[in-house]
Design goal:
Blueprint (H helix, E strand, L loop, with lengths): L9 H5 L2 H10 L13 E4 L14 E2 L4 H6 L3 E5 L5 E12 L5 H4 L1 H21 L5 E4 L3 E9 L4 H6 L12 H4 L10 H25 L7 E3 L12 E6 L11 E3 L4 E2 L1 H4 L1 H4 L3 H4 L3 E2 L1 E2 L5 H8 L2 H10 L8 H11 L3 H11 L6 H10 L5 H8 L1 H4 L3 H13 L4 H13 L7 H4 L2 H4 L1
Parallel strand pairs: 7-8
Antiparallel strand pairs: 1-2, 1-3, 3-9, 4-6, 4-8, 5-6, 5-12, 10-11
Helix pairs in contact: 2-13, 5-8, 16-20, 17-19
Length: 423
C-alpha cells in the first residue's frame, strides 16, 4: 500500500524525494537527464510587499532545491532547449470577489467543469493528451513538440518573419544562459499561439451553452452576475510576449497566491488556508481533488504514482494544423500577416491622426493608454469600434503599437516585454 506519513509543513512536503523527482520531470529532466528548461523562478513570503511573477528573479535550474527550501511557489521557463511547449490556461476570474476561488473552491470548480470538459474534448479530437494541472483557481494544460520534429516547420510557416522580440533577446537573457533562440523556434512559438487561439475558439463554441458563467479570452472583464463579475477565462496572452520572459507553474509545486497576496484575495479565511499543491488531475474525481487531493500528504502520495513528464504531442499538432488550415480564423491570420507591417512609431501616430469622430469609449483609451490599452476589455472594445469604422486589423495593431511606444509613463515594462508583438 502506498502510504505517506502525515505532512504538516510545505518544507516537509518539498523534502519528499518523489516530489522533487516529479518537479524535475516537469522541468524537462526525463530518465535521469538534465532539465531542459532554461531557468526556474520562485515566489515566497520574503518577496513582500509586491509579489508578482513579473518581478520574480530568474534562477538557474540548479537553484530548484534552494527555492523549495525557501517554501516558494516554483515556475519553469516556457523557453525549453529541446522542445516547443504548447500551453493553455483555464482560470476562474471574479473582478468583484477575487478570493472567491479560495473561499468557495467547490462551487468555483464545478462552475469551471463544463469548460474543463470542453478543453479535454477538443484536445481529444486531435489526440493531444496535454498534461493537466489543477491549480488554486483553474487548470494548466501543457504538451511539447520536440524541436527536431517536422511539424515545427509547419508552425513556423504560419508567420512570415520572426517576432520583433527576438532581436532584443541578448539584452534580456540572464548572464548564465548561453543558449539562443533560432528564428525557426521563435516563429514556431508565434505559430503555436495562433493554433492555441483556434483551440480556444473551438472550446468557446462547445462550452458556452453548458457553462453557468461567461467564458472569455485573456481575462476580459464581464458584466455582473449573481456572484459578481465572474467568468471562466481561457488565457493565451503569453503568446503576445517574448518566449524568454514567460514561465509556467511547476507540477507538484506549491500554489500560495491566496496567502502571498491577501491584498488581492481578501484577508481572513481565504488567506489563512494552507498552500495548495498543483497536482495532475489525471483520473481522480473532482470531489477528491477538492477535498484532499491538493493537500501535502495526498500530493506526496500522488507524486509516487504519477508522472509529471510533459507529453509529446507532435502528431496531434499535425492533425490540428490540417483542420486549422481550413478554418475562418486561419484565413483571418493569413490576411493579417499578409498585410504590410507598420513598424515606425510615426506610423501609429499617422493612423491616429486620420481617425475622426470616434466615440469617447474608443478615443479615451487611445488618448490615455496607460493602463487602459493593457486591459483586454478596453483593447477589445477599441478594436471592434475601429474595425466597424473600416480600419484594417493590421493598422489597428500598428495604432496600439504606436501608443505603447509613446511616452505615457510605461516605466520599464517594454524592457522585458515587446510593444509590437503585444500589440
Amino acid at each position: 500500500m502506498n502510504v505517506v506519513p502525515r505532512i504538516a509543513t510545505l518544507q516537509e512536503y518539498y523534502a519528499v524525494p518523489a516530489v522533487r523527482a516529479r518537479m524535475l520531470e516537469y522541468c524537462g529532466g526525463v530518465d535521469g537527464g538534465p532539465p531542459t528548461c532554461l531557468f526556474v523562478s520562485g515566489l515566497s513570503a520574503r518577496d513582500r510587499p509586491v509579489i508578482t511573477w513579473g518581478r520574480a528573479p530568474l534562477s538557474p535550474v540548479s537553484e530548484l532545491d534552494a527555492l523549495c527550501c525557501d517554501d516558494a511557489d516554483v515556475a519553469r521557463s516556457l523557453w525549453d532547449s529541446s522542445s516547443l511547449l504548447i500551453h493553455l490556461d483555464l482560470d476562474y476570474q471574479n473582478t468583484d470577489s477575487p478570493g472567491e476561488a479560495y473561499h468557495h473552491p467547490a462551487e468555483v470548480f464545478h462552475k469551471l467543469e463544463p469548460v474543463y470538459r470542453a478543453v479535454r474534448h477538443v484536445l481529444g479530437r486531435f489526440e493531444m493528451p496535454l498534461l493537466t494541472l489543477m491549480t488554486g483557481r483553474g487548470y494548466h494544460f501543457t504538451g511539447r513538440v520536440p524541436l527536431d520534429a517536422g511539424v515545427i516547420d509547419r508552425l513556423a510557416g504560419l508567420v512570415p518573419e520572426p517576432p520583433a522580440w527576438l532581436a532584443t533577446l541578448p539584452a534580456r537573457r540572464p548572464p548564465w544562459v548561453a543558449s539562443d533562440i533560432t528564428e525557426r523556434h521563435a516563429k514556431a512559438y508565434i505559430g503555436a499561439g495562433l493554433l492555441v487561439e483556434w483551440f480556444a475558439h473551438l472550446i468557446l463554441r462547445r462550452a458556452r451553452r453548458r457553462s453557468p458563467i461567461p467564458i472569455v479570452l485573456n481575462g476580459t472583464v464581464v458584466g455582473s452576475g449573481p456572484t459578481g463579475r465572474e467568468c471562466a477565462s481561457l488565457d493565451l496572452s503569453y503568446a503576445g510576449d517574448p518566449m524568454d520572459v514567460r514561465h509556467l507553474r511547476v507540477a507538484f509545486s506549491a500554489y500560495q497566491k491566496h496567502r502571498l497576496r491577501p491584498d488581492l484575495v481578501g484577508h481572513g479565511a481565504a488567506s489563512a488556508r494552507a498552500p495548495f499543491i498543483a497536482v495532475p488531475r489525471g483520473h481522480e474525481s473532482l470531489e477528491h481533488l477538492l477535498s484532499l487531493g491538493r493537500t501535502y500528504s495526498h500530493a506526496a502520495r500522488a507524486a509516487r504514482g504519477h508522472s509529471a513528464v510533459i507529453p509529446v504531442v507532435a502528431a496531434g499538432v499535425h492533425r490540428a494544423l490540417n483542420a486549422y488550415g481550413r478554418s475562418r480564423l486561419s484565413a483571418f491570420h493569413r490576411c493579417f500577416y499578409g498585410a504590410p507591417p507598420h513598424r515606425r512609431p510615426e506610423d501609429g501616430a499617422r493612423i491616429l491622426a486620420s481617425l475622426r469622430d470616434l466615440p469617447a469609449c474608443a478615443s479615451r483609451p487611445l488618448e490615455l493608454p496607460n493602463d487602459r490599452l493593457l486591459q483586454p476589455a478596453f483593447t477589445q472594445h477599441v478594436t471592434r469600434v475601429l474595425m466597424a469604422d473600416g480600419l484594417p486589423p493590421r493598422d489597428i495593431a500598428a495604432l496600439v503599437h504606436g501608443r505603447y511606444v509613446a511616452d505615457f509613463g510605461w516605466g520599464r515594462r517594454w524592457a522585458w516585454l515587446d510593444p509590437e508583438t503585444r500589440a
